[in-house]
Protein backbone atom coordinates (compact mmCIF):
# COMPACT_ATOMS: atom_id res chain seq x y z
CA UNK A 1 0.00 0.00 0.00
CA UNK A 2 1.18 3.50 -0.75
CA UNK A 3 -0.35 5.00 2.41
CA UNK A 4 -0.64 4.24 6.10
CA UNK A 5 -3.99 2.57 6.77
CA UNK A 6 -3.98 3.80 10.35
CA UNK A 7 -7.20 5.87 10.12
CA UNK A 8 -9.21 2.78 9.21
CA UNK A 9 -8.01 0.88 12.25
CA UNK A 10 -8.25 3.49 14.98
CA UNK A 11 -10.84 2.70 17.67
CA UNK A 12 -14.01 4.78 17.89
CA UNK A 13 -16.05 5.59 20.99
CA UNK A 14 -19.40 7.31 21.46
CA UNK A 15 -21.36 7.06 24.71
CA UNK A 16 -21.19 3.35 25.57
CA UNK A 17 -20.34 2.34 22.01
CA UNK A 18 -16.79 1.12 21.55
CA UNK A 19 -15.66 0.07 18.09
CA UNK A 20 -12.32 -1.61 17.45
CA UNK A 21 -11.93 0.21 14.12
CA UNK A 22 -13.67 2.67 11.78
CA UNK A 23 -14.96 0.12 9.25
CA UNK A 24 -18.64 -0.85 9.14
CA UNK A 25 -20.48 -3.41 7.08
CA UNK A 26 -23.06 -1.45 5.12
CA UNK A 27 -26.71 -2.56 5.26
CA UNK A 28 -27.57 -4.74 2.27
CA UNK A 29 -30.93 -6.40 1.64
CA UNK A 30 -30.41 -10.13 1.15
CA UNK A 31 -33.89 -11.78 1.07
CA UNK A 32 -32.88 -14.87 3.02
CA UNK A 33 -35.29 -14.71 5.98
CA UNK A 34 -38.43 -16.77 5.16
CA UNK A 35 -41.53 -15.47 6.95
CA UNK A 36 -39.41 -12.61 8.24
CA UNK A 37 -37.31 -14.79 10.55
CA UNK A 38 -33.48 -14.67 10.37
CA UNK A 39 -32.16 -18.22 10.65
CA UNK A 40 -28.81 -19.80 11.36
CA UNK A 41 -27.53 -18.93 7.88
CA UNK A 42 -28.11 -15.24 8.66
CA UNK A 43 -26.35 -15.66 12.02
CA UNK A 44 -23.34 -17.22 10.29
CA UNK A 45 -23.31 -14.56 7.56
CA UNK A 46 -22.92 -11.70 10.02
CA UNK A 47 -20.60 -13.62 12.32
CA UNK A 48 -18.10 -14.23 9.49
CA UNK A 49 -17.68 -10.49 8.89
CA UNK A 50 -17.25 -9.81 12.61
CA UNK A 51 -14.70 -12.62 12.90
CA UNK A 52 -12.77 -11.02 10.05
CA UNK A 53 -12.38 -7.78 11.99
CA UNK A 54 -15.23 -5.52 10.88
CA UNK A 55 -15.82 -2.99 13.66
CA UNK A 56 -19.55 -2.37 13.22
CA UNK A 57 -22.14 -4.52 11.50
CA UNK A 58 -25.23 -2.68 10.24
CA UNK A 59 -27.84 -5.28 9.43
CA UNK A 60 -29.84 -5.44 6.27
CA UNK A 61 -33.04 -3.44 6.42
CA UNK A 62 -35.40 -5.09 8.91
CA UNK A 63 -39.01 -3.98 8.88
CA UNK A 64 -40.86 -2.40 11.78
CA UNK A 65 -44.24 -3.61 12.99
CA UNK A 66 -46.57 -1.85 10.58
CA UNK A 67 -48.82 -3.61 8.08
CA UNK A 68 -47.25 -1.85 5.09
CA UNK A 69 -43.61 -1.74 6.20
CA UNK A 70 -42.39 -4.57 3.98
CA UNK A 71 -41.93 -4.41 0.24
CA UNK A 72 -39.93 -7.51 -0.69
CA UNK A 73 -40.07 -11.28 -0.20
CA UNK A 74 -38.07 -12.93 2.57
CA UNK A 75 -36.76 -9.79 4.23
CA UNK A 76 -36.41 -9.99 8.01
CA UNK A 77 -38.87 -8.48 10.47
CA UNK A 78 -38.00 -6.69 13.69
CA UNK A 79 -41.07 -7.71 15.65
CA UNK A 80 -42.63 -10.94 16.86
CA UNK A 81 -41.09 -13.50 19.18
CA UNK A 82 -39.63 -15.73 16.48
CA UNK A 83 -37.93 -12.96 14.49
CA UNK A 84 -36.57 -11.25 17.60
CA UNK A 85 -35.21 -14.57 18.88
CA UNK A 86 -33.39 -14.94 15.55
CA UNK A 87 -31.91 -11.46 15.91
CA UNK A 88 -30.78 -12.25 19.45
CA UNK A 89 -28.68 -15.09 18.03
CA UNK A 90 -27.16 -12.68 15.50
CA UNK A 91 -26.30 -10.16 18.22
CA UNK A 92 -24.67 -12.80 20.41
CA UNK A 93 -22.63 -14.21 17.50
CA UNK A 94 -21.31 -10.78 16.48
CA UNK A 95 -20.42 -9.89 20.07
CA UNK A 96 -18.64 -13.20 20.57
CA UNK A 97 -16.52 -12.34 17.53
CA UNK A 98 -15.58 -8.95 18.98
CA UNK A 99 -17.81 -6.80 16.81
CA UNK A 100 -20.64 -4.35 17.45
CA UNK A 101 -23.99 -4.39 15.67
CA UNK A 102 -26.90 -2.05 14.87
CA UNK A 103 -30.19 -3.12 13.24
CA UNK A 104 -31.35 -0.97 10.37
CA UNK A 105 -35.01 -0.16 11.07
CA UNK A 106 -37.00 0.19 7.88
CA UNK A 107 -40.36 1.03 6.33
CA UNK A 108 -40.50 0.94 2.52
CA UNK A 109 -43.48 3.26 2.04
CA UNK A 110 -44.88 3.50 -1.49
CA UNK A 111 -42.24 1.08 -2.78
CA UNK A 112 -44.61 -1.60 -1.49
CA UNK A 113 -47.11 -3.07 -3.92
CA UNK A 114 -50.16 -5.17 -3.13
CA UNK A 115 -49.38 -8.88 -3.26
CA UNK A 116 -46.28 -8.66 -1.05
CA UNK A 117 -46.08 -10.52 2.27
CA UNK A 118 -47.08 -10.62 5.06
CA UNK A 119 -50.61 -9.51 4.03
CA UNK A 120 -50.89 -9.27 0.23
CA UNK A 121 -54.04 -7.12 0.46
CA UNK A 122 -52.23 -4.20 2.14
CA UNK A 123 -51.22 -1.37 -0.23
CA UNK A 124 -48.20 0.88 0.05
CA UNK A 125 -48.41 3.78 2.51
CA UNK A 126 -46.75 7.13 1.82
CA UNK A 127 -47.15 10.85 2.47
CA UNK A 128 -49.20 11.52 -0.66
CA UNK A 129 -49.86 8.17 -2.33
CA UNK A 130 -46.94 8.67 -4.72
CA UNK A 131 -44.09 6.30 -5.52
CA UNK A 132 -42.41 9.05 -7.54
CA UNK A 133 -43.49 12.44 -8.86
CA UNK A 134 -46.53 11.80 -11.06
CA UNK A 135 -46.53 8.05 -10.26
CA UNK A 136 -49.30 7.12 -7.82
CA UNK A 137 -49.18 3.97 -5.72
CA UNK A 138 -51.04 2.96 -2.60
CA UNK A 139 -52.63 5.31 -0.08
CA UNK A 140 -51.79 8.67 1.41
CA UNK A 141 -51.21 8.37 5.13
CA UNK A 142 -53.59 9.89 7.65
CA UNK A 143 -52.24 11.50 10.80
CA UNK A 144 -53.29 8.36 12.65
CA UNK A 145 -51.21 6.30 10.22
CA UNK A 146 -48.26 8.60 10.88
CA UNK A 147 -48.56 8.08 14.62
CA UNK A 148 -48.79 4.31 14.14
CA UNK A 149 -45.52 4.26 12.21
CA UNK A 150 -43.77 6.52 14.72
CA UNK A 151 -44.79 4.10 17.47
CA UNK A 152 -43.57 1.13 15.42
CA UNK A 153 -40.09 2.66 15.14
CA UNK A 154 -40.08 3.33 18.87
CA UNK A 155 -41.13 -0.23 19.65
CA UNK A 156 -38.39 -1.61 17.40
CA UNK A 157 -35.69 0.56 18.97
CA UNK A 158 -36.79 -0.45 22.45
CA UNK A 159 -36.61 -4.12 21.42
CA UNK A 160 -33.17 -3.57 19.87
CA UNK A 161 -31.82 -2.23 23.14
CA UNK A 162 -33.39 -5.11 25.09
CA UNK A 163 -31.80 -7.66 22.73
CA UNK A 164 -28.34 -6.20 23.30
CA UNK A 165 -27.80 -4.34 20.03
CA UNK A 166 -25.19 -1.60 20.41
CA UNK A 167 -27.36 1.08 18.80
CA UNK A 168 -29.89 1.49 16.00
CA UNK A 169 -29.87 2.88 12.49
CA UNK A 170 -33.03 4.52 11.18
CA UNK A 171 -33.35 4.12 7.41
CA UNK A 172 -34.22 7.56 6.04
CA UNK A 173 -32.67 7.18 2.58
CA UNK A 174 -33.07 5.91 -0.98
CA UNK A 175 -36.69 6.75 -1.64
CA UNK A 176 -38.30 4.66 1.11
CA UNK A 177 -40.97 5.97 3.48
CA UNK A 178 -39.00 8.48 5.54
CA UNK A 179 -37.28 9.78 2.43
CA UNK A 180 -40.65 10.06 0.69
CA UNK A 181 -41.65 12.56 3.39
CA UNK A 182 -38.35 14.42 3.02
CA UNK A 183 -38.48 14.60 -0.79
CA UNK A 184 -40.68 17.37 -2.17
CA UNK A 185 -41.36 15.25 -5.25
CA UNK A 186 -43.27 12.63 -3.25
CA UNK A 187 -44.53 14.80 -0.37
CA UNK A 188 -47.41 16.90 -1.65
CA UNK A 189 -49.20 17.21 1.68
CA UNK A 190 -50.82 20.49 2.73
CA UNK A 191 -50.75 19.87 6.48
CA UNK A 192 -47.89 20.26 9.00
CA UNK A 193 -46.07 17.28 7.44
CA UNK A 194 -45.73 18.86 3.99
CA UNK A 195 -44.67 22.05 2.27
CA UNK A 196 -41.53 23.65 3.69
CA UNK A 197 -38.32 21.72 4.32
CA UNK A 198 -38.97 22.00 8.05
CA UNK A 199 -42.46 20.55 7.65
CA UNK A 200 -41.24 17.71 5.44
CA UNK A 201 -38.68 16.91 8.14
CA UNK A 202 -41.32 16.72 10.86
CA UNK A 203 -42.15 13.00 10.44
CA UNK A 204 -38.50 11.95 10.62
CA UNK A 205 -37.84 14.28 13.54
CA UNK A 206 -40.78 12.79 15.45
CA UNK A 207 -39.49 9.27 14.77
CA UNK A 208 -36.06 10.19 16.12
CA UNK A 209 -37.63 11.86 19.16
CA UNK A 210 -39.72 8.75 19.85
CA UNK A 211 -36.72 6.46 19.50
CA UNK A 212 -34.68 8.68 21.81
CA UNK A 213 -37.48 8.65 24.36
CA UNK A 214 -37.58 4.83 24.26
CA UNK A 215 -33.84 4.13 24.46
CA UNK A 216 -32.62 6.87 26.79
CA UNK A 217 -29.96 9.54 26.42
CA UNK A 218 -26.81 7.45 25.90
CA UNK A 219 -27.93 4.82 23.40
CA UNK A 220 -26.55 5.56 19.92
CA UNK A 221 -29.01 6.55 17.20
CA UNK A 222 -27.72 6.68 13.63
CA UNK A 223 -29.75 8.11 10.75
CA UNK A 224 -29.06 7.11 7.18
CA UNK A 225 -30.03 9.73 4.61
CA UNK A 226 -29.27 10.36 0.96
CA UNK A 227 -29.77 12.86 -1.80
CA UNK A 228 -30.32 10.18 -4.48
CA UNK A 229 -33.42 8.01 -4.68
CA UNK A 230 -34.06 4.69 -6.36
CA UNK A 231 -36.78 6.62 -8.22
CA UNK A 232 -34.33 9.33 -9.37
CA UNK A 233 -30.57 9.02 -8.99
CA UNK A 234 -30.13 12.75 -9.60
CA UNK A 235 -32.69 13.89 -7.01
CA UNK A 236 -31.67 16.40 -4.35
CA UNK A 237 -33.08 17.10 -0.91
CA UNK A 238 -30.85 20.14 -0.56
CA UNK A 239 -28.81 22.17 -3.05
CA UNK A 240 -26.39 24.08 -0.85
CA UNK A 241 -24.55 23.88 2.48
CA UNK A 242 -27.05 26.39 3.86
CA UNK A 243 -29.98 24.14 2.99
CA UNK A 244 -28.12 21.15 4.38
CA UNK A 245 -27.76 22.99 7.68
CA UNK A 246 -31.51 23.64 7.76
CA UNK A 247 -32.03 19.94 7.12
CA UNK A 248 -29.58 18.66 9.74
CA UNK A 249 -30.16 21.01 12.68
CA UNK A 250 -33.64 19.70 13.66
CA UNK A 251 -32.37 16.12 13.43
CA UNK A 252 -29.47 16.87 15.78
CA UNK A 253 -31.88 18.50 18.21
CA UNK A 254 -34.18 15.45 17.99
CA UNK A 255 -31.37 13.14 19.06
CA UNK A 256 -29.36 11.81 16.12
CA UNK A 257 -25.84 10.84 17.28
CA UNK A 258 -24.31 9.66 13.99
CA UNK A 259 -25.23 10.59 10.42
CA UNK A 260 -24.77 7.92 7.75
CA UNK A 261 -24.61 9.98 4.57
CA UNK A 262 -25.29 7.61 1.68
CA UNK A 263 -23.69 8.42 -1.66
CA UNK A 264 -23.07 6.27 -4.71
CA UNK A 265 -19.35 7.20 -4.86
CA UNK A 266 -17.65 8.40 -1.69
CA UNK A 267 -15.01 10.41 -3.59
CA UNK A 268 -17.46 12.76 -5.32
CA UNK A 269 -17.82 16.31 -3.92
CA UNK A 270 -21.33 17.26 -2.81
CA UNK A 271 -21.33 21.00 -3.58
CA UNK A 272 -19.34 23.18 -5.96
CA UNK A 273 -16.29 24.92 -4.55
CA UNK A 274 -15.31 22.18 -2.10
CA UNK A 275 -13.99 18.63 -2.29
CA UNK A 276 -16.02 17.56 0.75
CA UNK A 277 -18.48 14.74 0.18
CA UNK A 278 -21.92 14.60 1.82
CA UNK A 279 -20.58 13.03 5.02
CA UNK A 280 -17.83 15.63 5.15
CA UNK A 281 -20.25 18.51 4.88
CA UNK A 282 -22.52 16.88 7.45
CA UNK A 283 -19.69 16.60 9.96
CA UNK A 284 -18.55 20.16 9.28
CA UNK A 285 -22.05 21.54 9.85
CA UNK A 286 -23.13 19.47 12.84
CA UNK A 287 -19.91 18.47 14.59
CA UNK A 288 -21.47 15.02 14.93
CA UNK A 289 -19.70 11.81 13.91
CA UNK A 290 -20.46 10.85 10.33
CA UNK A 291 -20.21 7.70 8.25
CA UNK A 292 -19.49 7.78 4.53
CA UNK A 293 -20.23 5.02 2.03
CA UNK A 294 -20.19 4.47 -1.71
CA UNK A 295 -18.28 1.96 -3.86
CA UNK A 296 -15.38 1.48 -1.43
CA UNK A 297 -12.84 -0.81 -3.06
CA UNK A 298 -14.75 -0.87 -6.35
CA UNK A 299 -14.38 1.04 -9.60
CA UNK A 300 -18.10 0.97 -10.43
CA UNK A 301 -20.74 2.60 -8.29
CA UNK A 302 -23.51 0.73 -6.47
CA UNK A 303 -26.20 1.24 -9.07
CA UNK A 304 -24.31 0.58 -12.28
CA UNK A 305 -22.14 -2.11 -10.75
CA UNK A 306 -24.90 -4.10 -9.13
CA UNK A 307 -27.93 -3.61 -11.34
CA UNK A 308 -27.16 -1.98 -14.66
CA UNK A 309 -23.70 -3.22 -15.60
CA UNK A 310 -23.32 -5.95 -18.17
CA UNK A 311 -20.03 -6.95 -16.59
CA UNK A 312 -20.22 -10.06 -14.43
CA UNK A 313 -17.56 -8.83 -12.03
CA UNK A 314 -16.90 -5.35 -10.72
CA UNK A 315 -13.27 -4.36 -10.78
CA UNK A 316 -11.38 -3.54 -7.59
CA UNK A 317 -9.83 -0.14 -7.03
CA UNK A 318 -7.36 1.28 -4.54
CA UNK A 319 -8.38 2.89 -1.27
CA UNK A 320 -5.72 5.58 -1.11
CA UNK A 321 -8.26 8.38 -1.46
CA UNK A 322 -10.40 6.91 1.31
CA UNK A 323 -7.41 6.84 3.65
CA UNK A 324 -6.47 10.40 2.69
CA UNK A 325 -9.96 11.71 3.40
CA UNK A 326 -10.05 9.95 6.77
CA UNK A 327 -6.58 11.24 7.58
CA UNK A 328 -7.94 14.73 6.92
CA UNK A 329 -10.80 14.10 9.33
CA UNK A 330 -13.48 14.52 6.67
CA UNK A 331 -15.61 11.76 8.22
CA UNK A 332 -15.24 9.34 11.11
CA UNK A 333 -16.47 5.99 9.83
CA UNK A 334 -16.69 4.21 6.49
CA UNK A 335 -19.26 1.63 5.44
CA UNK A 336 -18.26 -1.10 3.01
CA UNK A 337 -20.93 -3.00 1.10
CA UNK A 338 -20.35 -5.28 -1.87
CA UNK A 339 -16.65 -5.78 -1.20
CA UNK A 340 -17.58 -7.39 2.14
CA UNK A 341 -20.58 -9.19 0.68
CA UNK A 342 -18.31 -10.88 -1.84
CA UNK A 343 -15.34 -11.47 0.45
CA UNK A 344 -15.83 -11.74 4.23
CA UNK A 345 -12.05 -11.49 4.64
CA UNK A 346 -11.83 -8.19 2.73
CA UNK A 347 -10.74 -6.10 5.70
CA UNK A 348 -8.09 -8.60 6.82
CA UNK A 349 -6.63 -8.71 3.32
CA UNK A 350 -6.58 -4.92 3.08
CA UNK A 351 -4.91 -4.62 6.47
CA UNK A 352 -2.23 -7.17 5.56
CA UNK A 353 -1.60 -5.68 2.11
CA UNK A 354 -2.97 -8.74 0.30
CA UNK A 355 -5.08 -6.79 -2.18
CA UNK A 356 -4.16 -9.23 -4.92
CA UNK A 357 -6.12 -11.86 -2.97
CA UNK A 358 -9.31 -9.80 -2.65
CA UNK A 359 -12.16 -11.38 -4.57
CA UNK A 360 -13.72 -9.13 -7.21
CA UNK A 361 -17.42 -8.56 -6.69
CA UNK A 362 -19.60 -10.70 -8.95
CA UNK A 363 -23.35 -10.25 -9.25
CA UNK A 364 -23.89 -13.98 -8.86
CA UNK A 365 -22.83 -13.60 -5.21
CA UNK A 366 -26.17 -11.88 -4.56
CA UNK A 367 -27.85 -15.24 -5.08
CA UNK A 368 -26.28 -16.83 -2.00
CA UNK A 369 -25.70 -16.04 1.65
CA UNK A 370 -22.10 -16.59 2.63
User: Regions with pLDDT < 50 over 5+ consecutive residues?
Assistant: 299-317
CATH level-four homologous superfamily name = Aldolase class I
Total DSSP E strands:
16
Helix percent reads 25-40%
CATH class: Alpha Beta
Structural class: alpha/beta
| CATH fold group | TIM Barrel
Number of helices: 11
C-alpha Rg, in Å? Answer: 19 Å
Structure in words:
This protein is an alpha/beta fold. The protein has one domain: Aldolase class I (TIM Barrel), CATH 3.20.20. The chain is 33% helix and 16% strand. It contains 11 helices and 16 strands. Strands 3-4-5-10-11-12-13-15 form an 8-stranded parallel barrel, surrounded by 5 helices. The protein has a two-stranded antiparallel ribbon with strand order 1-2. A hairpin with a 2-residue loop joins β1 (12-14) and β2 (17-19). α5 packs parallel to α6. It is globular, with a radius of gyration of 19 Å. The relative contact order is 0.13. This is NADH:flavin oxidoreductase/NADH oxidase. GO terms for molecular function: FMN binding; oxidoreductase activity. Residues 8-355 form the NADH:flavin oxidoreductase/NADH oxidase N-terminal domain.
Annotate the secondary structure layout:
Layout: E1 12-14, E2 17-19, E3 23-25, H1 40-51, E4 56-63, H2 81-96, E5 100-106, E6 125-126, E7 130-132, E8 135-136, E9 139-140, H3 143-163, E10 168-171, H4 177-182, H5 197-215, E11 221-226, H6 241-254, E12 258-262, H7 278-286, E13 290-293, H8 302-308, E14 313-314, H9 320-327, E15 333-336, H10 338-342, H11 346-351, E16 361-362
Parallel strand pairs: 3-4, 3-15, 4-5, 5-10, 6-9, 10-11, 11-12, 12-13, 13-15
Antiparallel strand pairs: 1-2, 7-8, 14-16
Helix pairs in contact: 1-2, 3-5, 5-6, 6-7
